[in-house]
Amino acid sequence: MRLVALSGSLRRDSHNSALARIAAGLAPGDVEVEVFEGLGEVEPYDQDLDTPFAPPGAAAFRDALERADAVIIATPEYNSSIPGQLKNALDWASRPLGDSALTGLPVAVIGASTSRFGAVWAQADLRKILGASGARVVDGELAIAQADDAIAEGSRLRDPKASDALRRIVEAVVAEGAAHLQALAA
Ligand code: FNR
Asked: Which of 6, 58, 119, 149 could in theory staple to 113 by disulfide, Cβ–Cβ 3.0 to 4.6 A?
């Protein structure tokens, strides 16, 4: 059972990258965890390149999803939606038509922003995009507002309630991942 955690931010000191790492650290001990760090290398989506031989950055993203039994994405909010690079990568993953790497894959969505709202609009958009691409979007929301204060030392959530909520989301996506794995094996 492998959980892939992904941040939608390319920024070195990103709050969402910290949140993705915190989420990964909450996975049960028997879960293999991978933090995908290649988002910045995913090439701009171009349908002319969208063949079985996708360019290497896009192929690496698709491979990470194909290795995953469950995924958790921490998204920033840019102008009330998700960052372009995250959307770009998901566009690659959703193709070729009828063979989306996201089909049936359990994905949990969380997010952090420096504003009072915790990237809730971006999270809603991300859920919509994932659903349209065939993913099984897991219930549960975590909006970390005022992230520069809420994430201490880039490594833990200051609010124990937020920490508990994140643990429950990780457990939920892992449970769905295990069920997905069993269904594939049956
Ligand atoms: C932002 N930010 C932001 N925040 C928010 O709550 N709603 C928004 O619509 C936006 N829009 C926005 C656009 C752009 C281009 C940038 C660069 C930033 C602020 C954003 O939440 C903040 O920069 C976070 O720190 C970004 O997440 P990471 O990089 O820390 O993970």
From this structure: 119
